[in-house]
Amino acid sequence: MFSTLISTLKNRFPAPTVQAHCDGPCGVYDPSSARIAAEAVVSMTKKILDLQHPADDDTQAMAAYQNTMSRYVAIKEEQAQIAKDEILVLWTDYFKPVHLEKYPDLHDTFWKAAKLCSACKVEVSTQHCAELMEAIQKIHSIFWETKSRDVAWYTAS
After folding, report:
1. So where are the chain's domains?
2. Helix count (H) and strand count (E) of the chain?
3. CB 90 within 8 A of CB 37
4. What GO annotations for molecular function exist for this entry (predicted)?
């Protein structure tokens, strides 16, 4: 009986059909969110490398070390995924075929940046972190050129 009532309501008051060019047609895109997430990856990578391993016989210090290390790793991986998601949204939703004419290496730039996000998740590498920041800086430059705007690159750290 309840399902019949719902079906009747749906038939009498159908939802309108909507269309959008992307997931959320807000038109608001900005590579800064990828930069911020990547900076967190850099920070956590440095913290992981700087964390001092305690003596094996100090159980309390070892527990604190493992807790801190696991938190740093979790944050690093989470932020690397966020950076990757933000890069992929720009690549798949903002950039159009017309941009490829001016930037023929656009796909390669984004593909390599996404791969660097994955590398930063899997490894603890300051080199890959630096390469990721360079890739995002390149994306930043290309993005703002397509909007004919001169937006300075900066980092929070």
Report:
1. 77-157
2. 6, 0
3. no
4. nickel cation binding; superoxide dismutase activity
